[in-house]
Amino acid sequence: MSRYDEIDLDSLGPEQQAVADAIAGGPRGSLRGPFVPWLLSPGMADPAQRLGAFLRFRTVIPQRLKELAILFTARRWDAGFEWSVHAKLALEAGLPRSAVEAIGRGDTPDFADDDDALIWRACREMYETRRFSDGTFAALKALLGPQGVAELAGLLGYYALVSITLNAFEVPAPDDDAVPELAEIAR
Fold it and tell me: pTM for the whole thing?
């Protein structure tokens, strides 16, 4: 059960309405997930949703690698909503089902792709040691370029914010996006 009162979209203040319109009218197309609780603070919601739109839709990081980092973060925080949405997107982006299943179980996937293995290692290092090792940083820079490394760090931070918000407000996973068998793995 969610911990926030449903916001009456017909009773939003002007700042809330502007942010709601930006979210629903943008590439996301709807107002759900962390965005409803964020509307409680439109001054926070607006820059957060703009950063998220950039990281999700305009970063230089290839889609498969981005979804891998998001899934790692969702699983790390046990954020069911984020997991449900991004497990499906990760599969659509070409991440192998076996890797998604392993992430859901909390296991280390057996990656056939070196780029996937590097992103996994980078995510694990950041969450376990709070930094990238010199070797991982150099490999990330070779793969993604300096801009991509900055965007990966931002992506991990942003999706930690999303996951914390989802967990704080106990936002339930959506039924429409879930890959049921994968959603069950992550629970």
Answer: 0.91
